[in-house]
Backbone:
């Protein structure tokens, strides 16, 4: 009796797993859709930073750069906080201890004033002028950019439709190999939308470090150009077999 019970318990996981499968002939396939589209919006992130023995002087430098960035966007039709061609937001200034290559244990600590900036450019015809203006300014570093689509939902729907057609094609090919035909769809799920260029979503695609005020000529091409987006969408589908 105990032996029969042990065998039954050992087979229980297999029975549970089998019960989750459809009780009809089916084909399980995956489909993938690809789209290369031109973006219609861009995002810029960077820091404004300044160092001075006098903290108040460094704060004044950062505030001056903030005003210059606001003026630059105003020239391009942007208004901070408004849904216009360009929108900017600033984080509160923070004070960070400045690390020295050869620190003097007897010297007073030195600090750097830093403020993070985020710009959304909704009219990419303004992109070059805005980027040129930013790259020409001192005290700007850790810059990164990314591009996207305002109608992201519509793009996702187009990708899903392409992926479904791809799954249908694969299923029909598999069924034909056995002299069968594909029946109705009984289950479908979609994977995460992927950005083939930047891995996922609006991640930074460039990086620019100008902490020492060096020339940005080597990076100008990357920042001034508008890059196309390569997106993909996957689906898993279960079809009945006729």
Residues:
């Amino acid at each position: 009796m105990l032996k029969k019970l042990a065998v039954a318990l050992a087979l229980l996981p297999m029975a549970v797993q089998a019960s989750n499968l459809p009780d009809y002939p089916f084909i399980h396939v995956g489909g993938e859709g690809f789209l290369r589209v031109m973006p219609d919006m861009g995002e810029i992130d960077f820091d404004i930073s300044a160092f001075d023995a006098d903290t108040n002087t460094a704060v004044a430098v950062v505030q001056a750069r903030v005003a210059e960035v606001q003026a630059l966007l105003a020239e391009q039709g942007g208004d901070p906080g408004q849904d216009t061609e360009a929108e900017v937001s600033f984080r509160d200034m923070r004070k960070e201890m400045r690390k020295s290559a050869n620190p003097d244990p007897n010297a007073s600590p030195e600090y750097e004033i830093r403020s993070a900036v985020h710009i959304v450019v909704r009219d990419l015809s303004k992109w070059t002028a805005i980027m040129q203006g930013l790259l020409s300014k001192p005290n700007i570093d850790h810059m990164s950019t990314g591009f996207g689509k305002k109608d992201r939902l519509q793009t996702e729907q187009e990708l899903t439709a392409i992926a479904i057609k791809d799954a249908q094609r694969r299923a029909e090919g598999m069924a034909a190999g056995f002299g069968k035909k594909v029946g109705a769809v009984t289950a479908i799920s979609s994977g995460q939308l992927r950005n083939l260029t930047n891995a996922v979503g609006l991640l930074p695609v460039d990086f620019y470090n100008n902490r020492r005020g060096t020339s940005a000529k080597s990076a100008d091409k990357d920042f001034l150009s508008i890059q196309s987006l390569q997106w993909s969408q996957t689906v898993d589908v279960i079809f009945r077999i006729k």
